[in-house]
Specification:
The complex is a heterodimer of chains A (315) and B (440).
Chain A (H helix, E strand, L loop, with lengths): L3 H16 L6 H30 L19 H7 L2 H33 L5 H9 L6 H11 L6 H10 L15 H26 L3 H9 L4 H29 L3 H6 L11 H10 L4 H31 L1
Helix pairs in contact in A: 2-13, 4-8, 4-10, 8-10, 10-13, 12-13
Chain B lengths: L1 H22 L2 E7 L2 H17 L2 E7 L1 H13 L7 E5 L3 H6 L7 H6 L9 H8 L11 E4 L3 E6 H4 L2 H11 L9 H11 L3 E2 L2 E2 L1 E4 L8 H10 L22 H17 L9 H9 L3 E7 L3 H5 L9 E4 L11 E2 L3 E5 L6 H11 L2 H9 L7 H4 L4 H4 L3 H8 L2 E2 L7 H16 L6 H18 L4
Parallel strand pairs in B: 1-2, 1-3, 8-9, 11-13
Antiparallel strand pairs in B: 3-12, 4-12, 5-9, 5-10, 6-7
Helix pairs in contact in B: 10-11, 10-19, 19-20
The chains are: A mainly alpha (315), B alpha/beta (440).
């Protein structure tokens, strides 16, 4: 039998020595380590957020610093929420967001499923597929404007060749009906590989033994797909949706290069509209209120989504 | 002894060098990145020789020019000592203290504003408009005008066909109605085995393109920014019957006679369309004209130039472009910057500026007897500068411009609503802006 009292004695005294390192408590040491990070966060995240909220309640204009700043209360918020043009940009953003996510998840998962099968040239195909996401969005936007050019664009030529219509008879980025789809197509082309990679990670994390057990139980491939593959890859899929959702909610560069928000305002997403208010019209107070509304929207939706994601993971 | 002499010589050289450096400054001039800016770099070498100052340049492409430079001014940046800023910036730059007021400097150096083309003084230098308060020296005169394919217009078979169809000669149009007839005539036609189109016009959404194009037409249809007797009273002036007809005309021209894919085109797209032989006529600022003369495809007499045509009631106006040169108030080298302006205002420098492709605003240059014959486009430039009007130059011009961009693009390119609705909406937007500014 071990003498517990003698064993415990040194361990009991250890915390006393460990608590004080050259006069500092564990708590103090912890604060020293996380202090700079917290200060940095406060300086570049929390303080600007509080400042933005404060500005949103004023008529401040950053290009007229000499003018007196008036307190306008919730007037900026009221104007934004009752402005049909703002709701139009919200609709344009929702259209872009929903369709890009749907297409990227469907195509990305399909590609991941196919790439996950062992075949010759697997690595080469993976590399080729992920190439678009390695390019700069500004570059992608620029060269797609050429691809969409009605007279010399490859996209129009291919569509014309396959459908028989005159390639110069339609303009993907100049037509009100086509422009919202033009930006969806480019974003899908660029970011589907990203979704594919996440899905691939999910598929490769499923243990082979589960499929072997299903085979023993004579489960069909279709049944295996719906009862093993999809449920086990679902957290990864949801993560991809979260990433793409957040990214596309703030989409700016690609669409500015492609359409500049036009024709008219049909592809003017919230981020483009916000930039115009803040840095072209210089309505800083108004733009701050706009930014706060967008922040609350994204933060709220993301929080709900993350809770759902956690529930799926716990299943 | 020898070493002492060497030491003394070296010291004298060093002293001379230091004395020279104390006066010489390194000045930075900010402007848009375009052909005239390159000409100014060459021209400024004369200033470097005569003054001992060194010139640096910060040029930004047109689509980002206003964003970049207004940010610089608004933040009190010291990057630019001299700014060749757009005409519409003058109100904001004057009221927000970005530019140095030049009246005393002009008086002290014998620079008279009456020596410059009147419209350019009003457009580029004065704030408030119509008052003798000067914030810039007219630097580059510019105006929206038109180019046309003179060689196509001269073809006998096309002339005969046009005359049979429209009952008049195929010449540079005098009215907007004629312009549309000619554009329709050329639209989709095959010339030398290539399909060509009627006209290239401004449709750009992001910065100021479509507004410059639409206003260029609207003025001649009777558009007024405000009640001449009651400032900022816009109802019935901005959205008058004439304005509505003008906007409908612009849309019909866009729909009938522009090349496919012209939904977001401004200066460079217009240049490309014209130089590549895609269009018979092209709306563009006069600064583009020297480039056509030297082009292999459209130069050597193939290009003609004409003033913005007349509206239905015979009124004729054109959209002012161009810029004045100002001294930035945040500069620490204001004296040297003023020296540059003094040098630039000299008649011989202005004459050289014109020969290098810079559009001088000095009357001594433009009213010289040989000026109209000095370049194929000189007469069209002179005639255009006589009928110019400019967009709002108020401190809120950027907001007013963005409202116009949205309303015009929504109607003309996207085809949403009617011209009346677009202009009524514009009156509402502009009224809101002036109310926010406390002017209404």
């Amino acid at each position: 039998m071990t003498d517990q009292s003698t064993d415990r004695a040194p361990t009991a005294s250890r915390p006393l020595r460990g608590h004080v390192v050259r006069g500092l408590s564990d708590r103090a040491v912890a604060w020293i380590f996380i202090g700079p990070t917290i200060l940095l966060l406060l300086a570049i995240n929390i303080f600007p957020l509080i400042w933005t909220i404060r500005l949103s309640l004023t008529n401040y204009r950053a290009n007229r610093t000499a003018e007196a700043v008036e307190w306008v209360g919730l007037r900026n918020y009221q104007r934004i929420l009752t402005d049909p043009d703002i709701w139009h940009t919200m609709q344009a953003t929702a259209h872009f967001l929903i369709w890009t996510i749907v297409l990227q998840v469907l195509i990305g998962f399909t590609l991941a499923y196919l790439i996950n099968k062992k075949f010759r040239g697997n690595d080469l195909w993976t590399t080729l597929i992920v190439l678009p996401m390695m390019l700069s969005p500004a570059v992608v936007g620029n060269f797609w404007t050429f691809l969409y050019q009605p007279q010399i664009g490859l996209f129009n030529y291919v569509v014309g060749y396959l459908s028989g219509v005159d390639p110069s008879s339609f303009s993907m980025i100049g037509d009100v009906a086509l422009a919202p789809w033009a930006i969806v197509i480019v974003d899908t082309w660029m970011w589907t590989p990203f979704v594919m990679l996440i899905c691939l990670a999910g598929l490769r994390s499923i243990p082979e033994s589960i499929y072997e057990a299903a085979e023993c139980d004579r489960a069909s491939k279709w049944r295996q797909f719906w009862t093993i593959t999809i449920p086990m890859a679902l957290p990864f899929l949801m993560l991809a949706v979260l990433f793409r959702g957040i990214e596309n909610f703030k989409m700016f560069d690609l669409v500015v290069q492609l359409t500049g928000g036009g024709p008219g305002s049909i592809t003017e997403l919230t981020s483009i509209n916000l930039k115009r208010e803040a840095f072209e019209k210089w309505r800083t107070g108004y733009a701050s209120a706009y930014a706060v509304i967008l922040f609350v929207t994204v933060f709220g939706l993301a929080s709900i989504y993350v809770k759902a994601l956690n529930k799926v993971k716990q299943r | 002894m020898k070493s002492r002499l060497l030491m003394a010589g070296a010291s004298a050289l060093l002293m001379c060098g230091l004395a020279g450096n104390a006066k010489a400054e390194n000045l930075t001039l900010c402007w848009a990145s375009w052909d005239p800016a390159n000409a100014l770099v060459e021209l400024s070498k004369d200033f470097e020789k005569s003054s001992g100052h060194k010139m640096s340049f910060e040029f930004v492409p047109w689509p980002n020019f206003a964003d970049r430079m207004l940010n610089e001014l608004n933040s009190g940046g010291k990057l630019c000592d001299l700014m060749i800023g757009d005409s519409q910036w003058i109100g904001g730059a004057a009221e927000n203290g970005h530019y140095v007021k030049l009246n005393d400097f002009f008086d002290a150096n014998g620079i008279k504003m009456s020596d410059f083309i009147d419209a350019t003084v009003t457009g580029y230098s004065e704030w408030p408009k119509g008052t003798p308060n000067y914030w810039a020296l007219p630097a580059f005169g510019d105006v929206v005008g038109w180019t046309y394919r003179k060689d196509w217009f001269a073809r006998p078979e096309l002339r005969a066909e046009y005359k049979a169809k429209y009952g008049r000669e195929l010449e540079a149009p005098q009215t907007f109605a004629e312009l549309k007839d000619i554009a329709t005539f050329f639209q989709g036609r095959e010339i030398d085995g290539t399909k060509v189109y009627g006209a290239s016009i401004y449709t750009e959404r992001g910065s100021e393109g479509i507004t410059m194009g639409v206003m260029d037409v609207l003025y001649s249809f009777g558009f007024l920014y405000q009640n001449p007797d009651k400032p900022y009273d816009m109802e019935g002036f901005v959205n008058s019957k004439g304005s509505v007809a003008g906007l409908e005309y612009y849309k019909s021209l866009y729909d009938c006679c522009t090349p496919p894919g012209s939904s977001n085109g401004y200066m460079s797209e217009g240049i490309d369309a014209f130089k590549s032989g895609q269009v018979a006529m092209q709306m563009n600022f006069a600064f583009t004209w020297p480039g056509f003369e030297s082009d292999a495809n459209v130069g050597k007499g193939k290009t003609g130039y004409f003033v913005n045509p007349k509206g239905p009631d015979g009124k004729q106006f054109a959209q002012l472009g161009g810029q004045g040169i100002s001294v930035v108030s945040y500069s620490e080298k204001k004296d040297a910057a003023l020296e540059y302006i003094k040098w630039f205002a000299q008649p011989d420098v202005q004459a050289k500026w014109w020969t290098m492709g810079g559009f001088s605003c000095l009357k001594a240059v433009t009213l010289a007897p040989d000026f109209p014959k000095s370049q194929p486009y000189a007469q069209a430039f002179l005639d255009s500068m006589a009928v110019v009007k400019d967009f709002w130059a108020d401190p809120s011009y950027a907001t007013l411009l963005q409202d116009a961009q949205k309303r015009f693009h929504d109607y003309v390119v996207a085809g949403n609503g009617t011209a009346q609705e677009a202009l009524d909406g514009l009156v509402r937007d502009w009224t809101q802006t002036f109310e926010d500014d406390g002017k209404l």
